[in-house]
């Protein structure tokens, strides 16, 4: 399979992130196309990862179906033929849509990331190890890296156009979106995560933490948008090897991070753009890691037609 690094569709492209291209269909719908671009340390690699965009789109679609009746969401269709039937202008572009496109309801997006942490890891562990806090809130003493958090901790973040998102307190979130919206965003975040955590655990996957995005429809309803509990928006750990007290292996771009970390430790890369070229072995290992996450979670192999 030839990986996709960019899309070119006969629609107005209104956004381009590190991974996704966003197109306006009309005033009520958008089309999300997830490419095979990959980033690490906030730098987009020159090489793409085969099947990565399909995994992210189809994992999200799978979760949206699991969440019907739990929260409202933006997905209309994630099947290429259903999308073409709804948007006939895309008829000649089926190859660019298969597996990686999602037709969605259009919303006004809230300017915060709704992060929820079920385990103490990543930036949360770094802050706790340094100060005993998470987003400025004190946690109990004596915790270890990767320890389970019960209940899970809601720790919103601001969205950064470049660089890392910044953890913020819940009072700060309220000042940005308002008290009522903040309460609703936290409630929906907890409902989605707790359902997802239980489902994933039954499939041998620990969702250590994840982040959600939400948008508001013209009628005022708040709905779940963007990607949902994918290997890019979450920390997926294999349950069979979980051992608190240190970092855990993950089902995402770990082979890529390990390779780049090795170059930095050897003084062969300074961590700045442009990133070094990736060997085929790293590209393939990363692709396999994403596909394995999809298979474990959904119970089926990734369909690519």
Could you please describe the fold and organization of this structure?
It is a single chain. With 305 residues, this protein is of the alpha+beta class. The chain has 2 domains: 12-106, Phosphorylase Kinase, domain 1; 109-241, 2-Layer Sandwich (D-amino Acid Aminotransferase, Chain A, domain 1), CATH 3.30.470. The chain is built from 8 helices and 17 strands.
Describe the structure concisely.
The protein is an alpha+beta fold. It has helices spanning 52-67, 80-86, 94-97, 122-131, 170-177, 179-201, 254-265, 280-298, and strands at 12-16, 20-24, 29-34, 39-40, 43-44, 75-77, 101-105, 108-109, 112-119, 133-134, 137-138, 148-154, 157-158, 166-167, 205-216, 222-225, 234-238.
Tags for this entry?
17 strands, Phosphorylase Kinase, domain 1, five-stranded antiparallel β-sheet, D-amino Acid Aminotransferase, Chain A, domain 1, alpha+beta, 32% helix
What pattern of helices and strands is seen along the backbone? EEEEEHEHHEEEHEEEEEHHEEEHH
Taking the sheet with the most strands, its summary is: 8 strands, antiparallel
Shape: globular
Per DSSP, what share of the residues sits in E-state strands of 2 or more residues?
Answer: 15-25%
Q: Low-confidence segments, ≥5 residues, pLDDT <50?
A: none
Helix/sheet category? alpha+beta
Strand segment tally: 17
Tell me the number of helical segments per DSSP (H or I, 4 or more residues long).
8
By CATH, the architecture of the largest domain is named: 2-Layer Sandwich
Mean pLDDT: 93
Q: State the helicity in percent bands.
A: 25-40%
Distance separating the two termini = 11 Å
Rg from alpha-carbon coordinates: 19 Å
| CATH topology-level fold name of the largest domain | D-amino Acid Aminotransferase, Chain A, domain 1
Provide the domain count.
2
């Amino acid at each position: 399979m030839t990986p996709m690094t960019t899309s070119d569709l006969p629609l107005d492209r209104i956004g381009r992130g590190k991974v996704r291209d966003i197109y306006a269909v009309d005033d009520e719908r958008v089309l999300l196309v997830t490419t095979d671009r990959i980033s690490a340390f906030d730098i987009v690699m020159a090489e793409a990862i085969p099947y990565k965009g399909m995994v992210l789109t189809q994992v999200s679609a799978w979760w949206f179906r699991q969440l019907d009746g739990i929260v409202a969401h933006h997905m209309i269709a994630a099947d290429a033929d259903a999308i073409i039937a709804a948007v006939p202008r895309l008829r000649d572009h089926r190859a660019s849509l298969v597996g990686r496109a999602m037709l969605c309801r259009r919303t006004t997006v809230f300017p915060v990331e709704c992060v929820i942490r079920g385990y103490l890891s990543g930036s949360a562990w770094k802050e706790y190890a340094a100060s005993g806090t998470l987003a400025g809130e004190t946690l109990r003493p004596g915790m270890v890296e990767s320890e389970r958090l019960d209940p899970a901790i809601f720790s919103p973040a601001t969205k950064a156009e470049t660089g890392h998102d910044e953890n913020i307190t819940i009072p700060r979130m309220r000042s940005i979106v308002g008290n009522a919206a903040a309460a609703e965003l936290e409630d929906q975040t907890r409902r989605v995560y707790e359902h997802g955590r239980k489902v994933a655990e039954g499939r041998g996957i620990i969702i250590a933490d994840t982040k959600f995005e939400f948008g508001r429809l013209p009628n005022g309803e708040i709905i779940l948008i963007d990607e949902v509990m994918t290997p890019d928006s979450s920390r997926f750990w294999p349950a069979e090897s979980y051992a608190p007290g240190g970092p855990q292996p993950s089902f995402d771009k770990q082979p890529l991070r390990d390779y780049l970390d090795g170059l930095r430790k050897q003084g062969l890369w300074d961590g700045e753009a442009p990133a070094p070229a990736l060997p085929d072995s790293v590209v393939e290992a990363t692709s396999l890691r994403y596909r394995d996450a999809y298979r474990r979670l959904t119970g089926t192999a990734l369909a690519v037609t």
